[in-house]
Amino acid sequence: ATVSYLTPPAENAGLYKGLKELKELISSYQGLRENEGRGPAIVNSIVSTAWTCNLDKDIDDLPDLETYDAKNDTPERRDDIVGKVYSQIMQIESRLLPCGLHTVGVPPSADEAVATLVNIAQLDRPEDGIEGIPRVIASSIGRDINDIYRGNNNGVLADVELNDKVTQASRAAVRALVSQSTDSNGRVKEVKNFFDEVGGFFGGLIGSKKPWTQAIIDNGFPNVSEERLAPVMAYLEFCLKQVVANNELPGIMELLNGQFLMPAPGGDPIRNPDVLPTGRNMHALDPSAIPTQAAVEVAEDVVRKLLEKLADENNGAYPESIAFTLWGTDNIKTYGESLAQVLALVGVRPVADSLGRVNKVELIPLEKLGRPRVDVVVSCSGVFRDLFINQMNLMDRGIKLAAEADEPLEMNFIRKHAIEQAEELNVSLREAACRVFSNSAGSYSANVGLAIENGGWEDESQLQEQFLTRKGFAFNADKPGMMEQQADLFKAALKKVDVTFQNLDSSEISITDVSHYYDSDPTKVVQSLRDDKRKPMSLMADTTTANAQVRTLSETVRLDARTKLLNPKFYEGMLSTGYEGVREIQKRLRNTMGWSATAGEVDNFVFEDANSVFIEDPEMQKRLLETNPNAFRDMVTTFLEANGRGYWETSEENIERLQELYAEVEDRIEGV
């Protein structure tokens, strides 16, 4: 049995240094944008500070610092610049940051409860007839929340401002709910009932607005519907009761006493609050039931955004082939979202039987699909292979269904590539259409992460060969129960890839928290195999919030670095935990370098700023050295290795300082 427990509390990453200054400047601009004297001057300061914060990497058309003068620009163009900068810093500020560890048996603080419930509240749950708070608020001013998200993502100033306002109102509503049950110590132990019969009776007698409705009104939305808020607020009250339920220690004791422990699903409490309360015997899911219909709908939305982004980048042309990475635990948490994305790109639909088991796929006609079928090369983790062998069968059958469809090659890239590869490798069309790969039975990962962590690799070609050797076992539905090494077929499929793609679906773990993400990233592998040696575009889908976004890998690495590695809230929090905290900081630096090795998508400023934070500051040096000298030595080694391998260009002064520090730390460890 496995006793479940709450995920660590999370809070917004917040802003610091130049990013904080940027938000203050934008706030000033909002009040003075009509002032032709002050407004342009503030825009000039915003542009200058944005360059200082390296936001030019995220905003393609950020004006040139040397030549731009906002005084000579139109008000519309000034709004456009400010809107795009505002959108970027709001992404950084609102990103969730896990803080510390969950302590079994300790009820959450009010702030921790609010952080969890705000994220539950933003999601629509149509199967339960529940609209998310942001959608209800947006409808009160005649807007659709998805349109606001779209405008926000495109940097439309009015929509960025409105999205921020909606977010603050949602948070205020949740805080109003939680504050009713917060004790004098700032913790939630018992939840007051607002939605039982007694609470509803007294509320009706008084005739006043509910506290959460009033909070939203106070935040600038006077027409919000209390009636439409009722389902989501009742749901949040129920979730709050589950969050604070003291089941974990009793559950552990029941188990240790050999008693029956009630089973419950596992997963992400944000996406699926049914995993609450914790302290029960956790199981994952029924593998035969994924992807669920809800997962298919989310996946189709992500695929639409993905293809829109790629078409915009490529003059309206669709990619011919996309390399996918599928993870076991991620598909458990999302009930098969990334699996459904693969099927959606191919243009096949999963079909469930009367018992809800997904055991068949059908081809979506091209007329209904409205675009070409995109080829995929799927690299499954070892855990995915173990848990979801039936879903690998489903994907393989769906891809072969598309490959055998009698359709124009310009509208079916799977068939186009399978025909070419069948001729090149002298195999049948069905065998050439194998696109689902993993490790051999009993083997896990590409071990690229292990090589990078240990520093035991000569050059990138060694890492690439390791990936191809370990991940080149094909699944073939025509030969069930076998994973055959098909290195030539794997290489032939990868050399056609235009885009590499992965998913981020939980705020708990991001791309520099663990080595798994870059371990299975094939970006530079594809570049080495392509005839033109062009590096494929690397993209990441972020579905950790209701506003699902598709970003480039370099954008995601920058966002992760700004919210974690370079963020005082993160590294000071880690340092407060002592020895292990320093190791966690070093781990993220090493994983950042891993992305340089496998994808080449880490900007120079990330290493430069990290060096400024952890190495140039004598006080910080001393803290790291005294807290965990071994991890600090590894940190210094990582900086030197990043420079030596050509991933970080810096001054000779910095390199000499690092070399001297390495010798000093070695002496400290050896007791010299």
Secondary structure topology:
Layout: E1 10-12, H1 17-32, H2 38-52, H3 75-94, E2 96-98, H4 110-121, H5 133-139, H6 145-153, H7 157-179, H8 197-206, H9 211-218, H10 226-244, H11 248-256, E3 263-265, E4 281-283, H12 293-313, E5 321-326, H13 328-334, H14 337-346, E6 348-352, E7 358-363, H15 366-369, E8 375-380, H16 382-387, H17 389-403, H18 413-425, H19 429-432, E9 436-438, H20 448-454, H21 460-471, E10 473-475, E11 483-485, H22 487-494, E12 499-504, H23 516-519, H24 523-529, E13 537-542, E14 549-552, H25 553-565, H26 568-575, H27 579-598, H28 604-616, H29 618-627, H30 629-644, H31 652-670
Helix pairs in contact: 1-2, 1-3, 2-3, 3-7, 4-7, 4-10, 5-7, 6-7, 7-9, 12-14, 14-17, 17-18, 25-27, 26-27, 27-30, 28-29, 29-30, 30-31
Task: Give a written overview of the molecule.
- The structure is a single chain.
- By secondary structure, this protein is of the alpha/beta class.
- Helix content is 54%, strand content 9%.
- It contains 31 helices and 14 strands.
- The strands form four sheets. Strands 11-10-9-8-5-12-13-14 form an eight-stranded mixed β-sheet, sandwiched between helices. Strands 1-2 form a two-stranded antiparallel ribbon.
- Helix 3 runs parallel beside helix 7 and helix 25 runs antiparallel to helix 27.
- It is globular, with a radius of gyration of 26 Å.
- The protein starts with 9 loop residues before the first strand and ends with a helix.
- The model has no long low-confidence stretch (mean pLDDT 91).
